Fold:
Amino acid sequence: MYDIHHLNCGTMCPWGGRLVDGVSDGLAARLVCHCLLVETDHGLVLVDTGYGARDVAQPHPRLSRAFTALLRPRLLPEETALARIHARGYRADDVRHIVLTHLDFDHAGGIQDFPRAEVHVLDAELDAARHPRGPVATGRYRPLQWDNNVRWRTYSAHGEPWFGFPAVRELPGLPPDILLVPLAGHTVGHAGVAVRGRDRWVLHAGDAYFFREEIDPREPRCTPGLAAYQGIMDVDRDLRLANQARLRELARHHGGEVRILCAHDAVELEGRGRGIGARHAARVLEPA
Ligand SMILES: [Zn+2]
Structure:
């Protein structure tokens, strides 16, 4: 059981306001890059990395111009994982492991800021990133962010059960309380990352969904903006939707034991433990 810190490692302000994020009053929406910092006796573990210091210093050509135009990342130095970790009194070298949901530019940008870390990811994801096909793949996977000197650890997408999901529990150097939960669809080798916290599990579901209410067991819904974006980005729509359905079932049956979160929902990040799963569990436990 570990202390888990929730970090925003990149704010994005695409046009569309509440048609995208469901809450903003202005013309621009606000999305975050929700990363986890886990303090373990094996050193610090980072789950996803958001945008990195080098993306901030010189965004292009590390990032695709099409995606920066669409998502409008603010690229603030103080929001990088490196700055967040410094602000907590740690050094870059204290980060020994990075566990990635996938290799999209808004998740992989900080890898090079932590040269001592081993980087854990599903093998299908690394393979897809190294051999991109088509404009979406070449825009989303940016080898300049991770092509040199990265200590990869890759895994095939099966393993032992975890709340009904097959999960990879044996990540070398990491305890069995941090595991990869394959959730393909957004990308070929996309995975959630489950971490056992002090009071319950946290499942970082990456980009398996984008809007908090998509996994509401009772009334799932998505904003039109984020539904459209997910439709552009997914590689297997049926699989993506099937995995969202599984996440809803997880929220329905285990919302009190597992906090489920995604990468880009600002309300979820700021809610800190009041996510859909928790809300549903509260309804179940405290009938009106
Ligand atoms: Zn993303």
